[in-house]
Amino acid sequence: MKRLQLLVTVFALLLSLNTFANALVSIKGKVVDANTQAPLIGATLYISDLKASTSTNSNGEFTFNNIPSKGKFLLEVRYLGYKTSSKLIDLAAQQDISFALEPSVIESAEVVITGTPFSANNKTNSLAVVSVSRDKLAQSAATNLVDAIAKVPGVAQVTTGGAISKPSIRGLGYNRVLTMVDGAREEGQQWGDEHGVQVDQFSAARIEVLKGPASLLYGSDALGGVINIIDDLVPAEGTYNGNFTTNYNTNGGLTASSLMMQGNTNGFVYRGRVSYKNAYGFGYKGHVVPNAGFNEINTSAMLGLNKTWGYTHLSLSRFATNIGLVEEGPDADGNYADEDGNIISNSDAKSRSLNLPFQNINHYRAALNSNVLLGGGQLKSTFAFQRNIRKEFEETKDEPGLNLGLNSYTYDVKYSFANNGIWEPTIGLQGMYQTNRNSGEEFLVPDYNSNNIGTFAYLKRNFENGAINAGVRYDYKKIDGKDLFEDHGDHQDQIFSAFNNSFSNFTGSLGFAFDIAKNLNLKGNIGSGFRAPNIAELGANGKHEGTFRYEIGNSNLKQETSLQFDLGLTYQAENITLGLNAYSNKIYDYIYLSNLNGETIVNTDHDGNTETLPVYRFLQTDANLVGGEASVDFHLIKALHFENTFAYVKGTNKATNSPLPFIPAASLNNEIRFEPNLKGLSDSFIKVGLTNVFKQDRIDAFETETDGYTLFDAGIGTSFKTKKGKLNVWVTGQNLTNKLYYNHLSRYKLANIYNPGRNVSFGISVPL
To answer: Distances from the Cα of 93 to the Cαs of 24, 69, 97, in angstroms?
Structure first.
């Protein structure tokens, strides 16, 4: 906890900067319709690098208070039915700023913060970044945050029931995809199949998904991409508001609710949130899966200052969940039985009380984010502490079998030099120190210490119609595994042998993004990636509940390195948008799990019970992943949207010229969305969609083929205007035909458990 005390101390020191701050500075402006010059009321403006936001009044006017008196920042304005617009503003000029927005039925490019050291228009970002808004997250009826973004082209999920989903980007997952929360990389034993993302899904204002190697700015584990979970910007000066959101799913009986309150008083900003979720086991066509339920409670708070010298925010959160684990699938008749062989009825399976085995996870996070204006540039920093306590209860609810305690201390410091908006240089230093300790009676990975550090230099050159960027990075990581003996009284068995490994690598990236013609944007990137083996790959030795296998690590594994070529083309006209992305990713010393020659082991638990499990070992090979994504969005009339996306990836083991394991099947998504203009209402929609997943028959020798399937979805919703803001209501349905199907990346497929059947979700969001 000494590191946490240090975070609080640093926060207090930064608060003292207010004493030396300059006089308060304000900027003003106006937002109007480009054709009629009529003021646009309620348009929202953002300065992401200052975490500041405001909105226009009845005259279309806006004001930003308590912001720096100098510096150049990207200002973005959004208004429904108009093109999103952004411009670089010079605060030292103190000029009134005007935006003339053009009506549009198509959402245009927006400002992103992922894959760039500072906010940037996505059209000038050479990396493929997709943003998912809070409304789309809420209306997805997802059971967890990763489930909510699973329809983004190129994104898939490795699932273990409704509570656990792990992101896969372009065929790469686990420690090859980095999740960012509160500006810091999440560390929560993410090497495991049944280790999901530990974050409150209600806290996400939006999620940005970066597809492709991002090691330059994020280091090891960003070899495949980044999931950046972005919280709300602070409310406007003098504002105090809140929100209550709740929804109910008919499949699994999921109830999920969240209450948030926030405010801004003379630049002192604060936010608090509490969320709760509870579900019993999911079901499919006449069956409910017993002990597949979960419950979750999340609490978080943010305190900070937004002043003339920049901002500093301290975020504290606790994620706590209990998740039931399914040990066996149904019998030949499709029924589930208890330990005594008695059939479990659907009514009994709907119990919200968890039986053995189950997981208990507590994830504590403290993050200090700051952006201090220094020497004409911006000094951005994130210091974070995380403690992940993961327990698995197998034989009794009193004492955990597996008990892992992981402490992670991370830091990320970047300085963007003063610039005129043409040359934009940035340098950075990042690092992490970790300790992991076993406290239970069973062991899967050894105790270990890990320390890694990385430094990078990045340069962006802006032009009138685009930009080019380049960068270089060096990383070093050291991991020390500890000996571990199991005491049997008269003798000791060695479970793990000590090892000391170190890894280092240079990473580089070169990219461009240009408007090569009217409405036509071309972007490309050549980037290398780096990933050191995780602790499970180096030292695993045991069975993990819910995975149906026994894993054995290899301490002699080498680091993974990659080289990816990415090319994207976007065409955006008045009534149509077209997007094409193609990539080729060569990964050297790719690490993968394999069940060689059907190897098995007889595993004995502490009660003397035995079971035969397949043995999976970690191997290495050179690998190729090639694929692409395509999207077409038609707007035949203003209120009618016809959206289509396609994604495909092919993974090949170069040593054997055979398929890589755990590659998602190709998918095609179609959705028709009608958005009528109804008197007294706003944001109204009616949608129907098809999710088409193709057969996956390119499989490794130990995998089984997965048939293709088509799911039918639909939804309806609207918003009511109130004095406090918009009250949103919606009803959405998934798999409405109650299709029986397996997703190729479902871990429960191994136990012949189908994916969830029909689900109808009811939601409401009330402003406070």
So the answer is: 15, 9, 10
